[in-house]
Phosphatidylethanolamine-binding protein PEBP
Amino acid sequence: MNPITYTNEPVSPRVTMSVYYNNRKVTNGCELHTLTAQTTPRVVIGGKRDEKYTLILADSDDPKYNSQENLSWLVINIPGGTTCAQGTQVVSYKGPGPGVGVHRYRFDLYKQEEKIDKIKNINILLLRGCLKTCDFAYSHKLGDPVGVTYFNVRKQPPPPAKKKT
């Protein structure tokens, strides 16, 4: 597999991960319509059943958050060889919102050393815009991502208001 750029370092996926929106498989760099990405995706994870994984979905191109990311979804304790539905959802799924320009939404998959019983700084995570994926991974001893998939959404400006006649 080809390495995927993650922050400044390339990531070579070590665990398979397939993401589907309404039966459409996400391929790295594909463009999805904002409406397509409003439903919670089905994420299938490889690995062994006795292994646990964490999935983070974030918008890394939102200018409102400077060096931080806009958290779209967080699921922990996902057994290998299953889907995210088998894990514990910490932050519910939120599809792409309004805005302008191209935004990259990145699914980062981490292998856990052990089951996560408590999330640090959960109140901050629930604000969604205060995430640094690498800091979260470090504080929960997740190491580097073992799988990465991303898609782009081109957010359109609202249409101009119609003039009253």
Remarks:
- The longest strand covers residues 101-111.
- The longest helix spans residues 133-139.
